[in-house]
C-alpha cells in the first residue's frame, strides 16, 4: 500500500488494510478473484482511454443461464488526475442493443479536501459488503434497475 499511495500515513494505510479485511471476510465463502494492484498507475498516467485502476477487487459471480454479476471496488484516477473510489454492481446485459453490462448501483467518491482516501475507501468497502449480503441473483438486480429479463445468449459478445 505504501508503494501505491506514498502520501498516506501509517494510520491511513492501516485503515485501508482494515477495510480490505472487512471485504475479505464478507466474501470468505466465495471462489473469486483476489485484490489487484497496478504499480505503474501509482502515479497519474495522464488522460487515457478507460479508467486507470490503481487498486481494487472484482467479485464475479456466475448464475444459471450464463449470467454474470460483478461487485466492484476500485481506487482509480479521474481524468483530472484526482483519486476516486468507485464501487458498483454490474449485471450482464440482455438488452436488444448489447451493452455487455449495466452498472446497477454505483458509488463514486472523489478524494480531496473533504474526503480522504481512507474515508472514501471505507465507504466503498462498506457498500460492497452490503451488496455481497444482498441476493446474488442477477434477476433481482435487473429488476431493481428496471432492465429487461435475461434472454437467450446473443452473438460473440456473450461468449465469455
Description:
This protein is an alpha+beta fold and 160 residues long. The chain has helices spanning 10-26, 117-133, 138-145, and strands at residues 36-37, 53-63, 67-77, 83-92, 101-110. It has a 5-stranded antiparallel beta sheet with strand order 1-2-3-4-5. Helix 1 (10-26) packs parallel to helix 2.
Quick summary:
The chain is of the alpha+beta class and 160 residues long.
Physical arrangement of strands within the biggest beta sheet: 1-2-3-4-5
Please state roughly what percent of the residues sit in beta strands, choosing from under 5%, 5-15%, 15-25%, 25-35%, 35-45% or over 45%.
25-35%
Helix content: 25-40%
Q: What's the average pLDDT?
A: 84
Q: What kind of sheet is the major sheet?
A: 5 strands, antiparallel
**Global Rg:** 17 Å
Task: Give the helix tally.
Answer: 3
Q: What would you call the structural class? A: alpha+beta
Describe the SSE topology.
Layout: H1 10-26, E1 36-37, E2 53-63, E3 67-77, E4 83-92, E5 101-110, H2 117-133, H3 138-145
Antiparallel strand pairs: 1-2, 2-3, 3-4, 4-5
Helix pairs in contact: 1-2
Distinctive features:
single chain; 160 residues; alpha+beta; 3 helices; disordered C terminus
Amino acid at each position: 500500500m505504501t508503494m501505491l499511495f506514498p502520501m498516506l500515513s501509517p494510520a491511513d494505510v492501516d485503515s485501508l488494510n482494515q477495510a480490505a479485511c472487512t471485504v475479505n471476510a464478507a466474501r470468505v465463502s466465495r471462489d473469486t478473484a483476489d485484490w489487484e494492484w497496478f504499480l505503474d498507475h501509482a502515479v497519474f498516467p495522464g488522460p487515457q482511454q478507460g479508467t486507470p485502476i490503481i487498486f481494487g477487487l472484482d467479485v464475479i459471480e456466475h448464475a444459471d443461464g450464463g449470467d454474470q454479476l460483478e461487485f466492484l471496488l476500485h481506487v482509480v484516477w479521474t481524468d483530472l488526475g484526482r483519486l476516486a473510489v468507485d464501487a458498483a454492481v454490474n449485471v450482464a446485459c440482455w438488452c436488444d442493443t448489447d451493452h455487455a453490462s449495466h452498472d446497477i448501483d454505483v458509488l463514486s467518491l472523489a478524494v480531496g479536501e473533504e474526503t480522504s482516501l481512507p474515508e472514501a475507501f471505507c465507504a466503498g468497502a462498506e457498500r460492497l459488503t452490503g451488496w455481497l449480503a444482498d441476493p446474488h441473483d442477477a434477476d433481482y438486480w435487473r429488476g431493481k434497475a428496471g432492465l429487461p429479463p435475461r434472454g437467450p445468449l446473443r452473438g460473440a459478445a456473450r461468449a465469455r
